[in-house]
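User: Please fill in residues for this 582-position structure.
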């Protein structure tokens, strides 16, 4: 046997496999192309929202980002590389490497055909429709159809060319009127009432061209505290607000970012106004507070800006009362308050802005030398399952923060009434005339007060009991901030100057302080916040200027994203377009 070791032949290399996949450019994201442009989005994003990130508009009617997907209007059909037919963009999620096209002849013809179908039985109501100017049917017609209708204009007896007629004006609830002829059955309203309001009071009835939206028989009426939202989300003029109907054209309105002061929720709203009149509230997008909705009670609180307003200062009481100028009222009030310094009680309603509270608390502490503050305000009310809270005072949290920052002890309204009943209060400086009991009852409690100075927005038995009535501006008439129940502080913008001779509450406090010798150099609400908010730990880091939303002209007609020309959505050279040839 040989001792030599056997030499093994070299092993062949392993067969070449498929090349290793390159790691993804954006881990955890999906990359696709839309009209040749590369887009990176989160997995599960639908085509409509994904395309919007690069400024590509895919038209739609039935889709709403806060509602389930119905995909029944077929306006959003696009070409996709992984499908032989057009796919609904609102329903189809983006996948890796997908290519979609939104401007091909096939897509454009589909959009034109859908528009022709939707307008086939649609009435020519643009001249009288409240939706004119913020109507997607108008906007998309101008972009995607813009051709005369092929429906016969003159139809004989038995002809199939007549438009299908439905109920033209059906009052379906306290706040909403339905025009079934204008409805395109997108079912947004049905899904909202079912999924968000949790009150499935609307449904789709009948079939074919006679299909309509209506109130479910077991309910009888759209009687919900959130019925106004179906008007907001209706893309056409089928559901209209009975309060706003025929009052103003939306292209004449401007919008001021504001907050609803109906309860402590503090929903973000847009106050649509013209001149010195607010015409409606609409919910403004705020993910942390109200998302896209608001309740009907809050929606109608704007009416308080136009009713029983105190517009001129009044000095004197009873038969001696007379109107005065602002300067005269300041001098008269200061003359009466000066000898009572140190014995003037201070009461405030948590319905005014943080700036009003900051200046008023500074005046009460440094000039009136008050040690405590009585809290008045609105009486508790009903809460609901969605947004509305039982506390009807919009700025209670801000009042608590500011009182603590200024070292004030908060006393209840019961403490105030007890002190008044026992004649322990000789003089009272009252901010806001809202009280949690009957106003006439409270006014009778004030008969023993030697001096009552009120800064209030409305005429009431409480303000009438004052020796000096100072007219206060509403929160849409001045800049400021409000802090809602969860501690979220929001900026509001001024829509128009105060009515009459009204001043913001903070300005009355500043002018009285100056007249009484205090150093209060604040000229604007911004000055008040910058000078006094550092005393409040919860407000000192709030960026008053940076967090200021912009006032928008014609906010009501912005229904589409900006076009390639950079003009704002819904832009029109001369009002809203007519739908021609229908």
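Assistant: Residues filled in for all 582 positions:
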């Amino acid at each position: 046997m040989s001792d030599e070791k056997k030499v093994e032949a070299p092993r062949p290399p392993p067969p070449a496999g498929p090349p290793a996949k390159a790691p993804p450019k954006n881990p955890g994201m999906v990359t696709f192309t839309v009209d040749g442009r590369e887009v990176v989005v989160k997995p599960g994003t639908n085509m409509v929202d994904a395309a919007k990130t690069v400024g590509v508009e895919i038209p739609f009617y039935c889709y709403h980002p806060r509602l389930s997907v119905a995909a029944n209007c077929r306006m959003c059909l696009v070409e996709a590389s992984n499908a032989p037919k057009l796919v609904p963009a609102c329903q189809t999620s983006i996948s890796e490497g997908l290519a979609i096209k939104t401007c091909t002849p096939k897509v454009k013809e589909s959009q034109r055909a859908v528009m022709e179908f939707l307008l086939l039985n649609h009435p020519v109501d643009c001249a009288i429709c409240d939706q004119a100017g913020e109507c997607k049917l108008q906007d998309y017609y101008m972009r995607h159809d813009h051709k005369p209708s092929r429906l016969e204009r003159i139809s004989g007896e038995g002809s199939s060319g007549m438009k299908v007629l439905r109920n033209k004006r059906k009052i379906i609830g306290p706040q909403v009127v339905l025009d079934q002829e204008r409805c395109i059955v997108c079912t947004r309203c049905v899904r909202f009432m079912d999924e968000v309001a949790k009150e499935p009071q609307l449904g789709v009835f009948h079939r074919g061209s006679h299909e309509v939206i209506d109130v479910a028989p077991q309910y009888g009426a759209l009687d919900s505290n959130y019925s106004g939202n179906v008007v907001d989300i209706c893309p056409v003029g089928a559901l209209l607000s009975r309060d706003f109907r025929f009052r103003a054209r939306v292209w004449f309105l401007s919008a001021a970012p504001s907050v609803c002061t109906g309860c402590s929720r503090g929903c973000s709203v847009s106050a649509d106004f013209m001149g010195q009149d607010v015409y409606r509230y609409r919910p403004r997008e705020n993910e942390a507070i109200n998302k896209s909705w608001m309740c009907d009670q809050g929606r109608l609180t704007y009416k308080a800006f136009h009713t029983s307003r105190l517009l001129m200062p009044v000095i004197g009481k009873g038969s001696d009362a007379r109107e005065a100028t602002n300067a005269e009222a300041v001098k008269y009030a200061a003359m009466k308050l000066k000898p009572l310094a140190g014995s003037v009680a201070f009461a405030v309603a948590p319905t005014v802005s943080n700036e009003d509270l900051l200046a008023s608390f500074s005046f009460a502490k440094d000039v009136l030398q008050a040690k405590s503050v009585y809290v008045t305000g609105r009486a508790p009310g009903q809460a609901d399952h969605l947004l509305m809270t039982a506390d009807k005072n919009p700025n209670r949290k801000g009042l608590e923060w500011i009182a603590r920052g200024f070292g004030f002890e908060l006393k209840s309204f019961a403490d105030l009434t007890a002190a008044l009943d026992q004649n322990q209060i000789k003089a009272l400086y009252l901010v806001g005339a809202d009280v949690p009991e009957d106003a006439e009852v409270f006014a009778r409690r004030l008969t023993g007060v030697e001096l009552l100075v009120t800064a209030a927005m409305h005429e009431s038995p409480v303000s009438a009991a004052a020796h000096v009535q100072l007219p206060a501006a509403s929160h849409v008439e001045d800049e400021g901030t409000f802090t809602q129940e969860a501690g979220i502080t929001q900026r509001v913008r001024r829509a128009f100057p105060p009515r009459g001779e009204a001043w913001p509450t903070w300005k009355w406090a500043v002018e009285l302080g100056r007249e009484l010798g205090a150093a209060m150099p604040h000229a604007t609400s911004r000055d008040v916040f910058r000078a006094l908010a550092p005393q409040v730990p919860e407000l000192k880091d709030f960026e008053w200027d940076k967090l200021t939303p912009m006032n928008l002209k014609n906010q009501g007609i912005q229904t589409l994203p900006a076009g390639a020309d950079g003009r704002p959505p819904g832009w029109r050279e001369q009002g809203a377009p007519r739908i021609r040839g229908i």
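For context: The two ends are 107 Å apart (CA to CA).
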